Amino acid sequence: MIITTQINQQRLWRTIHELGKIGAGSNDAEGVTRLALSLEDLEARQYIIELMEESGLDVRVDVVGNIIGKLEGKDKFAPVVMTGSHVDTVYQGGLFDGALGVLGAIEAVRSIKESGIELSHSIEVVSFTDEEGTRFGTGYIGSKAMTGYLDQATLQLKDANGITYQEAFKQAGFDSKQYKQAIRKPEELKAYLEMHIEQGKVLEEHELAVGVVTNIQGPVWLEVTLNGYPDHAGATPMNMRKDASLAMAEVMLEVERISTTYQGVGTVGKIHVEPGGVNVIPGRAVFSIDLRHGDKELRTKMMEEVTTAVKKIGEQREIGAEIDMKKAVDPAICSESIVHILEESCDELDIPTMKLPCGAGHDSLMMTKVTEMGMIFVRSKDGISHNPKEWTDQEDCVIGTQVLLQALVKLAK
Ligand SMILES: [Zn+2]
């Protein structure tokens, strides 16, 4: 066993619970809710800034609110090793999604600093703005800005209260008009390494605390609007209806069929039917489709088939059908050398592990556009996430963070 230095287990666990109190039970809801740029999110950011400062990192916040804490290496001009995740959450999320990656990274780098290990490369811990995309319907905002993929159109998107991204940034004290200033050039970065909870059951099934990610399935988000006619539910015979709900149900079954055929995954998770009366035929249905596949070409084929199905169902039922693409993130392959470093780190620490693909989207998807990327997965209890029941044992958080530390030392030495 080659241990460079041990992390502080209690400190890591304490910070996970301290951060988890922010946004807990807000609006009388269960779980943790810290939507991007909300008051809860801003409080969480303040907590992260203070924790980074207390850990001896040089902290700065960029124009779109990415918090960056730096441990300076001996060679100031060497490319930086970056690690982190996000602290925003979905509605009624849990303690670990995103938070573990940020707090684990702070703990690992703090332990490196305290142990006096000298590194050539600087390490930057980053807490990205709005990874989840819950509030404005599109995510990875901080990592998009950092990699040069944010645009004006995205900043004009509105939340449920009609507030644009740009206004929300302004209210939070950020000058998002200058978003291009957040861009980091490929030559500035050596690698990006993210630790995240698995959000699935594979590690649990294999009785492993940690896994090494090989690739990430990028999501495509479509929004479908079906326009029928809201007639009376009693006075309109079945053959005279233009029922948007029934058309939606057909599309949903097609999404299942197409996803199964391509061995990808497809989900209709958000539906809205108008006018929403018990005795009124639904005249309008608006719903989301989330499609994912590890292979970009096959994902494109899935999307094409879904689009054809929507049009065909609309024509057959004489219902207007529109499809709007809300988000498309390319699938990504993890860096072979980082996969190797992570396996080697587990080996040195006598931690059994396995390689696995990643089904969820992460900031690492964006970072792979500018640098070598790798991910460590930590076991999720029952595979539950985006839910108050989301759980990862203390021991697993500690093992994941210890592997992160080991790999960071190797990358930055
Ligand atoms: Zn996450």
From TrEMBL:
Gene Ontology MF terms in the entry: hydrolase activity, acting on carbon-nitrogen (but not peptide) bonds, in linear amidines; metal ion binding
Positions of Zn(2+) 2 binding: 97, 132, 386
Cofactor(s) the protein needs: Zn(2+)
Residues covered by the Peptidase M20 dimerisation domain: 217-316
Pfam entry (one): Peptidase_M20
InterPro entries: Amidase_Cbmase, Bact_exopeptidase_dim_dom, Peptidase_M20, Peptidase_M20_dimer
This protein's UniProt keywords: Hydrolase, Metal-binding, Zinc
Binding site for Zn(2+) 1: 86, 97, 196
Recorded superkingdom: Bacteria
Co-factor binding details: Binds 2 Zn(2+) ions per subunit.
Family statement: Belongs to the peptidase M20 family.
UniProt protein name: Allantoate amidohydrolase
Organism ancestry: Bacteria, Bacillati, Bacillota, Bacilli, Bacillales
